[in-house]
Structure formats: structure tokens, C-alpha cells
Amino acid sequence: MDVPSLVVILQAALSPNPAERKAAEESLNKFQHTPQHLVRLLQIVVDNNCPLAVRQVASIQFKNFIAKNWAPLDHNEPQKILLSDKDVVRDHILVFVAQVPPLLRVQLGECLKTIIHADYPEQWPLLLDWVKHNLQDQQVYGALFVLQILARKYEFKLDEERTPVHRIVEETFPQLLIIFNRLVQIEKPAVEVADLIKLICKIFWSSIYLEIPKQLLDPNAFSAWMMLFLNVLERSVPLEGQPMDPELRKSWGWWKVKKWIVHILNRLYTRFGDLKLRNPENRAFAQMFQKNYAGKILECHLNLLGVIRVGGYLPDRVTNLILQYLSNSISKNSMYTLLQPQLDVLLFEIVFPLMCFNDNDQKLWEEDPHEYVRKGYDIIEDLYSPRTASMDFINELVRKRGKENLQKFIQFIVEIFKRYNEAPLEYKPYRQKDGALLAVGALCDKLKQAEPYKSELEHMLTQHVFPEFRSPVGHLRAKAAWVAGQYANVNFSDKNNFLQALHCVISGLRDPELPVRVDSVFALRSFVEACKDLNDIRAILPQLLDDIFKLMNEIENEDLVFTLETIIDKFGEEMAPYALGLCQNLAAAFWRCMNTAEVDDEADDPGALAAVGCLRAVSTILESVSGLPHLFVQVEPTLLPIMQRMLTTDGQEVFEEVLEIVSYMTFFTPTISLDMWSLWPLMIEALADWAIDFFPNILVPLDNYVSRGTAHFLACKEPDYQHSLWNMISSIMADKNLEDNDIEPAPKLIEVVFQNCRGQVDHWVEPYLRITLDRLNQTEKSRLKCLFIKVIANAVYYNAALTLGILNKFAFMTEVFNLWFQLLQQVRKSGVRANFKREQDKKVCCLGLTTLLALPGEQISGEALGRVFRAALDLLVAYKDQVAEAAKEEEVEDDDDMDGFQTDDDEDASDKEMGVDTEDEDEADSLRLQKLAAQAKAFRGNDDDDDEYDSDDDSSDDEEMQSPIDDVDPFIFFVDTVKALQASDPMKFQGLMQTLDPHYQALANGVAQHAEQRSEIEKEKMEKAYAAAAAPS
């Protein structure tokens, strides 16, 4: 397609007629891969005779095609751009990037970024030469523009990846200095000069972000740069040409230059100017920076802040950065000495006024209260907020230099409170009171700890904070709620004061002003957490929940959901009557948040964050009513559409939260419904397509489906869940590109099948063992080897004769058992067992080894039998000791401090059978709940590369699994198997006993006695249970 024809199609893409637009888009898609198509698009972008709208469409097409096809993520994918076309694009984009209008330059800049990241330096070695050449002629802007993109490529690179930076700095920085110097000397410079200086600053920023290039460690070279930075920083910004609109003004070129210079100086100061640095080279630089520049920068910064004091303009971001520099100076003695003479002026005439409610706040409060709330709760806004930086400065000041400043500052706040109380209604300094309350709230941690302030807090709250709940001024009512929340956990000597504040906060939920309602909900969370007597809230709980949901209908804010979660968590099963309504409201709120997030298309959008919060709150509800299975049936229709939609690519941002809900819904519901089974294919598909990182999370519901819906899993053929699981596991186990950590859930799922489908999946034993042995041969890590050996142990326990036959068929019998015994015998330097450290590991191995003892003589030799017998005895003794140790630890811990790390169901049984105090049924239910919650977290896997099978920080994952073997006592199983062997083959039994040395004979006798004790305890327990069931109600 020639250029004129392409222009016609691009014009059609702008047509108001949908049919014409669609036809144009189809044509563009059809021809996009033809030779020279990319070159023709670029020709149109740079053609000044073409309409700007057409050039813009061409630039977007050009950018999107390059982003997708210049360097495909899949290296095996065939190249869709001819090398000759790439050469033409590289040569011409450099020439025109500075000549096109800014609207198009943005798109070409993105293209350059993609090309430079992919091609420099290997495929584009002459790029830096082009930059050097053009820095010396009339193409300075284009050269700086390209150099900034090039420098940014290495901004976050470390070590050898950063090597190209040294050449960039060496070959361009001398010329940059010359250009910078020339620009600074221009009298009455135009704003275009600011654009050039800004590019130089951004190049410098990227080059020093993680490491000072060695060329700049030279004091003379560094000094030349610093003199220019300080020169520009000290200069007044030209008044001529400054936009009056606040949004345009802060983005004006000269203010942007100020921001970048302050940014650079902060970075140099905080990362490289600290004398505590251990690197000797950096320490020398830090000493030089502290001695020659830190004080000068401080002086410049204080002069800049002085503009605020007299009502002048300073952009919020610049103010924020300067205050960060001052905060970092407080702890350094030499800098604090320089700061001290001006500290009072800084504190009381600049920093405190920045904390006060101002005209911009008032305008936003009145015109867009939703935006006011969003800005107040947005972490990103804090990066730009002078108010946040002021609070941080005061906190740092009283933390590091509190002795000479805290009393002085509090006295200042007290004077404001006093003036406010004494002033007539129409002259009260409302905004100063707002700032004083903000200061009191910001200093809460310090004031709660330090006397005499700690003793006066209750008085301060009742005299100066709580009365503002009734203020005629909305922002003071909001601030009163926020401050009250900060101090909700102090020990009130008069409980009525706590209740007064609580009721005021609850009343604030119905305030006519939206920001007051939001701050009240935020404060309510602290009061609920601090509340010692839930009766204070219980009576109004329905109204409270109603108010929160009304507010959630108005605004998307994750802090609202946090408060709801706190209430649900605090009241536990008492939330049962509200569970369905809560889930319905949260589901509705979730869909609203998702719709907002889709429109805004920003990852940090408050709607997206609130959507995650809604799902977390649903999980909290399900956890709180876990002992009421019928409720899960009621909430399923409400939650099912969310699970169905969000288990696809639409739900990638909330996938983990949705999987947690699926885990609860498949674990606690009486039976897994067919609708819930419809989620299985979605999870399998996601896992195959994009969700391998979530495999540990997906493991939990898949385990629940197999273990709690075993009959359906085995019987259903449309879809065939057995084949579905096999296809997924075999594909993952065979994928050599996957790391060992990625595939760990796969052998765990094979275990789940063997344990839950005993005697019903004989035809799957051989395929699963084959892929297990194949991957076992490839892996080097003990951790994964142990997981594969556990699969074999489970297969032996499932059907020993079948498993040994398969191992013999594959000629793997000797190799597998040698590895098994080798792993069992490995110890660390400390003498503790290196592998199979968890109770569940030992139990699985015990059951597998014990099952081998029952095989006929022709299937297992006498020598092998003795080896198996001794290994089983060692494991049983180790298991017994571990259970006893876990029981002791539980006695020491608080009753309610159970995080599921020490016990699982078989341990509970072991504890009881060994005479350890048993827990009542409620606690057992609670423990099962803890286990499910821990499953969702524990199976997220280990990111470390430790070669050891077990590490202290992931000791919970397998312990949280529940399976049929939980009910099998390994001691009784062992003794019963040995007795059966003695009865069926006395000679074999006698031969086995004769191979045991005195040590193992003693162990065997001890295990037999222990099994008898456990058997007696189990018998008594069953008799009590039978008697309780038979007793009249």
C-alpha cells in the first residue's frame, strides 16, 4: 500500500461513522505486516503537509506496532519487521523526533524507548555517536531528548548491567556541562531554555540514581555540576509567561527545572551524602558533599520556603521535596546546627501553616467532596503533599530532637486551643484549630508514651477534640473524628469519655458532609479494635452496617472496607444473621468498583484497591461463619458470578483474593454444588495460560474438590475431572522451563488423589509414577526430591504390590529406595534430620514403609525387609518425639495464639492418645478454620533457593493439609501390620526379628507399648462418644 492510500485509510479511522471506522481498522490490521508499512507510517507522522489528526493516528499505530513487534517477548516468535525497515526507522526517527509537534513527539519518544531498550548497544552501536555529534550543533534538543531516553534505560541497572552508563557519562557529560553553562548565562531566557535544562537534569538524575559514575567522583567535575544546580536553584523564576491556572503553573518549564534540581540534590544527600556509608569510596564522597554542599543546599531551600511565609507561590512537589531534605537534616549535628537559628520561623511560620486547612482545601471540599476524600486517602498524593511532608518533619523533629522542641511545639498548639476557645464564634481561628488537631493526631505515638503529655491526653481529648464533633465547620468535625480515632486505644479513666467519643464517631456516619462521614468510618475501626465491651456496639450493629454500606454506595475507598472487616472479625459468628446481606452488599460494591477501575484503567485507582478490599471482607465473613455450613449455601448464588468472572483473565488483579473465597466455599459448604464444580475448568485453564505463579493458591481449592467431592471427581465424565487434572499435572511436571518451586504443588496434588481415592484410581498409578520418576531424575534440590518420594510413599500405601510392579517395570526400584533411605538418613551439622522434618512427612513415609512389611516374601527380600523395618521404627520414634514437643509448645502458648504452625489433625489425635490435654470441640473447629486460612497462605510457596527440604519459615504448608490419613494412627497401623505378618508368615517374622540388634529390638518393644496405650485411649474415647450419642436429650 502506498502512502496516499494509507493516508485515506487513516482518515477513515477518524470517521464518525462506526462502519467506516471498523473497515479502516480492518484494513490497517490486514496490511500492518507488509514490507515498508512501518516506514510509510513514519513518513506520514513527519509530513507537515498532512492533517495533524491523521499524523496523530499514524503515530499511535506506529507506536503500538513497534511496542508489540520490535522485540517480541517470545524469542522463538518469527520477526515481523524486516531488518531493512528497522534500519530505516532507526535512522529517520532520530532526525525527526525534535521537529514534530509535542503531541507526536510523545508517541515517537515511546517508540524510541522500545527501540533503545531492545537494540542499544548491540544492534545500534552508532546511537551514542549520533548523540555526541548533535550535542555540538543545532540539533541539541533532539540529542538531549534521545540521551534522556538512553540514560533512563540504565536508571535501575546494577553492577555489570550498568557498564554502558560509564561510557555515556564519559562521552556526553563534558558537552552537557558546556551546554548547561551556556544556557544558565542567557539573560531573560525563554521557557524553551527551561525545557533544555530540564532534559539535562533528567539525564543527570538517571545517571546517578543508584550509583555515582566514577567520572563524577572527581571533585572538580562534581563541583562544576553543583555550581550550576545551585545557580539555577537560587535564581528567581521569571514572572513573565507564568500561567495563572494552578495546574498549568506547577507544570510550567521553570518550576519543573526547580523540581528536578531539588529532586537531584535530595537524592545525592540521602543516598550518597550520608557519613555512615560503609563503602570507602562513597564515604569520601559523603564527606566532600557534607563539607562543601549540604549546608549551601539547606540555605537555598530555606530561602525558597521563605516565599511561602510572605504569601508567594511554590509548587506543592517542590515544597514537599525541600521539607524531605530538612527532615533528613535533623539527625545530622552539623546540619541541625545550621537549622537551629531559623527553626522557630520554619516551624511556626512555614511548616505549621502548611498543616492548616487552606483555600484550596475549602474549594475542593465544596466543589468536589469525592475528590477531597480521594486526595486525603491516596498514598501517591502524599508524595506531593506539603502537608504530609510537614507532618513528617514535625514527627522527625520531636523524635530526634524532642528534648528542645516537643514542649515548645506543644505549648504553641495549646496557645492555639486557648485562643480558639476564647474567641467569639465569628472570629474563631477554625483553620488554625484544624492544623493544631492535625499536629496532635500526627504526634500521637510520641504523646502516648511521653510524660507529662501521656497523663493529660484524656483531658486534652475531652476539652479540645470531642467538642468539635458539634462544630458548625465541617472540616473540624472531620478532623475531630480522625484525631479521636488516633487516640481510641488510650486508657480512659472514665469509660463514659470513650463511649462519648464512640457515639460521636458513629453519629458522624450520618453527617451531611461526605468527608466527615468517611473520616468517621476510618476512626470507627480504631474504636471497634479498642472496644473492651462489645455490648457498647452490639445493640446498634445493624444500623452501623447499614450506614457503612450507604457510604460504600457513595464512594470507593478501601479504608471503609477495612473498618467493615474489623467489625466482622471482632463479632465473629455473631455476624451470621447479617452474613447474606453483607455478602450481597459487598458483591454489589465489588462490581461497582470493578466498573470504575475498568473505566479509569489505572492499577492504583481507588476503585481497584477497594475492589480487593471487598473480596477480603467477603473472606473475613466466610471465616467468621465457618461453623455454620448452611450459610455457605445461602451466599453461593451471590458470590458465584464474581468467582466465575474473576477466575478468568478479567480477574488477574484480584485472583489471589478470589481463590481464597473459592477455598472457603469448597471447604465449609455441606456439599460442593455443581455450580461450584463449574469453576474447576476455569482454574485449570488459567493455570495453563497465565496463572502458574498462583499454583500454590489454586492447589487449595483443587484439594478441596478432590477430598470433599471425591465421588463426583471420580464419577463425572463431562467434564472428565480425572483427565483434566492429569493433563494439567503432567504438562507442568514435563515443562523444563519451570523452576522447581513452580511445580511443587503438582506432587502435592498427586498425593491428594492417592490418599482420597484409595482403591479407585489404579489406572492412574502408573502414569503419575512415570511423570514423578521422570522429573525426579532431573531435579537437584532435596526439597523437591522429598516431595516426589512422598508421592511414591503414598502410592505404596495406596497399593504396594501395584506400585512395586510399576517400579520394577521402569527398572527404578533399587534407585528409588536407595534415594528414599539416603534422604531419611541425611542430617545437618547440628545433628537434626535434614529431610522429612514435618509430622505429615514422617507419617506418610511411615505408612508407606509399613505397608511394604505386609507384602508376600517373593515381592520383598529379607534384607530389604529389615532395612524397611528399621527405617519405619526410626521414623515412628522421631514422629512420637515431635508430637510430644509440639504438645509442650502448645501448653506454653496462649490458648488463642494458634497459627496452625505446630499441629494438624493427626497431631491432635496423637496428643490425645499420648495423654496430652485435649481441646474441646469449639477449639478443634477453630483449629480447622485456622488450617484452611493457613492453606491459602501457606501454599503460596517458597521463593528462596534453599536446597534444604524444610526451613523454619515454611513449616506450615503440608501440616495444613487434611486427608484420610489424618485418621490413621501410624503406631497402631505398624503394630497391626507386624502382628498380621507374624500370624501369616511366622518364619519370615522370626527371620526379621533376628536381624534386629538390641537397639532396634528395644525400639520395637517401645513402639508396641506406645501403640497399645494409644489404642486404649482411642477405645475409651469411642466408648464415651457412643455413650454421649445414646444418652437421652
UniProtKB/TrEMBL annotation:
InterPro entries membership: ARM-like (IPR011989), ARM-type_fold (IPR016024), Importin-beta_N (IPR001494), TPR_IPO7/11-like (IPR058669), XPO2_central (IPR013713)
Alphabetical list of Gene3D superfamilies matching this protein: Leucine-rich Repeat Variant (1.25.10.10)
User: Which regions are flagged for Low complexity bias?
Assistant: 929-938
Keyword tags: Acetylation, Cytoplasm, Nucleus, Protein transport, Transport
Taken from the record, one Pfam family name reads IBN_N
What biological-process terms (Gene Ontology) are attached? protein import into nucleus
Q: Which PANTHER family match?
A: D-IMPORTIN 7_RANBP7, IMPORTIN-7, 8, 11
* Protein name as catalogued: Importin beta-like SAD2
Q: Which organism is it from?
A: Hibiscus syriacus
